[in-house]
Amino acid sequence: MAKSNPSNSSGSSPKPSGSGNHKGRSDRGGGLNIVMYVIIVLVVATAWHLYYSKPPSDEITAGELENRLDPERDPKGPKFSATNVAKLTIGEKFITVETLPDLRDKPGAEATPESGDKATSEARKELARKYIVPIVGIADVGRERLRQLAEKQGIRVSYERPPSEIALLISWVSVLALGLLIFFFILRRTGGAGSALSFGRSRGRMHAQEDLDVTFEHVAGNDEAVEELREIVEFLRSPGKYQALGGRIPRGVLLVGPPGTGKTLLAKAIAGEAGVPFFSLSGSDFVEMFVGVGAARVRDMFSQAASRSPSIIFIDELDALGKVRGSGYPGGHDEREQTLNALLVEMDGFSSDQSVIVLAATNRPETLDPALMRPGRFDRHVLVDRPDIKGREAILKVHVGKIKVDDNVDLKHVAKLTPGFVGADLANLVNEAALLAARKNKNRVTVAEFEEGIERVVAGLEKQTRIIPPEEKKRVAFHECGHALVACSLPNTDPVHKISIIPRGLGALGYMRQAPTDERNLITQSELESRICVMLGGITTEQIVYNEISTGAQNDLERATDIARRMVMEFGMSPKLGRVNYRDSGRNPFAAVQFTSQTEYSHSEQTLREIDLEVKRIIDHAAQTAYEVLTTKREILDHLARELVEKEVMDAEQIYKIIDEHKTVPQLKPGTNITSLITADPPVAESVTEKPGLPPASGDA
């Protein structure tokens, strides 16, 4: 595969937890809700009335009040008299003067000194108010004088009785009770898993049977896993059949497999088939910022499940909760470990409930704690692996039932073109094919859309509008033809399916795709060496044709070096280092990308040097073999490159047609001396299947 230079690139909603009959709970609380709404409305209406029914008030000093009550002081200022004051109330801290609402209704009302209607209107507006006079700190003599002045003006004077302690207590208790009532009402309305006082409650959701429409009929491609899980369902439905023989239900079932193989789909199928309460949550739902919340949620989850036993708890992404506990720290408190300890005790502890089955899924089993994996907790480990060709065909049949497919579509052929695809990839493939058919205004999906969908999933989106210089396009054509020619010439390689120089994906200027015809589980040393030769065919072609290489072979070199290093360090295929594994067994069997740690190479410097030398020897030997093949078949290489530049895409039929025109060109085997070659027709390449974890020999993006 040629790559561009990086430096020059241009359902139904589930019910809340703890509520087996959520509708009934809402009905029982309906009367209380109405009462609360009525109380809140009355409180708001009363407060509104009290606030807006009172006249506006101003605060004046005792001296100013004395000026208004004494006619001899400040004759031109506003005055208080019996004609404009309703009453004067003397309290412990304040004197309150309430004026009459309107002077026009009071006969004999005195106008302000200013003449005219405007002055009279302003005076009336000013007097129709409530005046508050602070008297804290005023001597009793001063208060008595104010009272005498008011009575002299004919104003009715009254005294305010101070409230008793009991009345104050009752008022405060009433306000506090009302506030608490409103608070608990709001808390009850928002009392879900994320409310302020419910951190310790489980976030698991209980699914009702009428809301679950997935069964085992919707699961295909992994009959062994379905059979194992079907037994769990049968035990829940008719436990007497197994108990009569002394058997017991498995305490826990762990679904293990690569991402996208259908672990969660199997859990949904169990929920739809079991006929018992089914709780589902993620491993990350136990994690919270507060200490002790995780363990509390574990206990609450099992408490809810036990109250509805027999029941099933499904924990997705168990590795977020059950990672192995570290031993590097002598003490301390780890919140995650306490959560895991609570899970261990609930699953198989002193008082564990045997009527609750725990179903979990993970794609990182190597990170789980051994205490969690032992029998008694997770009794069964069900492998949900990548489907084989029959499994892929069965999965495709399930998904194509939702779209309109042409009668000429052979699903077995499509399954043969998709080695290594999981259920999620196949579902995406069918959807891509349907979208491509709709884009072309077709009534049905044909084989062409499926093949184009495979290329979109594997190699990325096609970039036909990207402009590539003619010389660079020619170099890419030679590069990809070098891959294809080496793959067609050597034994133990997969047949070439297509080569293309149309850019796809992230930086891929072209690609060569091989299509194995059989499912293989073992790969021999000669097959791995042939794969490395195919990967080095592109860069070797550039060296032969242009006498220099480019950055387009970066991915080829990376994958070839990885295979060679694994041959030396893991597979014992080095005659110099012997049958020894030099790599620690810490690799994830289901991870697409492996990260190498510093502790992985715990060997001497001499051993590391010998490993590097052996890797280089394997790469150099493969490069020499590819060089001999390409120089011997240079005429075929030039012919293929010319056709590819013109057509941009060539399928297997076109490739082998050109090769058949040059039948006198000999075949090579890895390690064959070029001088000992004899002319022979190229044999049919033996098809193999890639071992999980090894990169493919093709130039797929």
What does it look like?
With 701 residues, the protein is α/β, with parallel strands linked by helices. It folds into four domains: 57-159, 2-Layer Sandwich (Signal recognition particle alu RNA binding heterodimer, srp9/1), CATH 3.30.720.210; 205-325 and 334-383, 3-Layer(aba) Sandwich (Rossmann fold), CATH 3.40.50; 389-458, Helicase, Ruva Protein, domain 3 (Orthogonal Bundle); 470-676, Peptidase M41 (Methane Monooxygenase Hydroxylase, Chain G, domain 1). 44% of the residues lie in helices and 9% in strands. The chain has 23 helices and 14 strands. It has helices at residues 22-28, 30-53, 62-69, 117-127, 140-152, 165-189, 223-237, 240-243, 263-274, 293-307, 335-348, 370-373, 389-400, 411-416, 423-439, 447-459, 470-489, 525-535, 537-546, 554-569, 605-632, 634-647, 652-660, and strands at residues 57-59, 85-90, 94-99, 130-134, 157-159, 205-207, 252-256, 278-282, 311-316, 356-362, 380-383, 496-500, 511-514, 649-651. The strands form three sheets. Strands 6-8-9-10-7-11 form a six-stranded mixed sheet. Helix 17 runs antiparallel to helix 18, helix 17 (470-489) crosses helix 22 (634-647) and helix 18 crosses helix 21. The longest helix is centred in the last third of the chain and has 28 residues, at 605-632. The chain is elongated, with a radius of gyration of 43 Å. The protein starts with 21 loop residues before the first helix and ends in a 41-residue tail after the last helix. Mean pLDDT is 78; it is low at 7-29, 103-121, 123-127, 191-197 and 673-701.
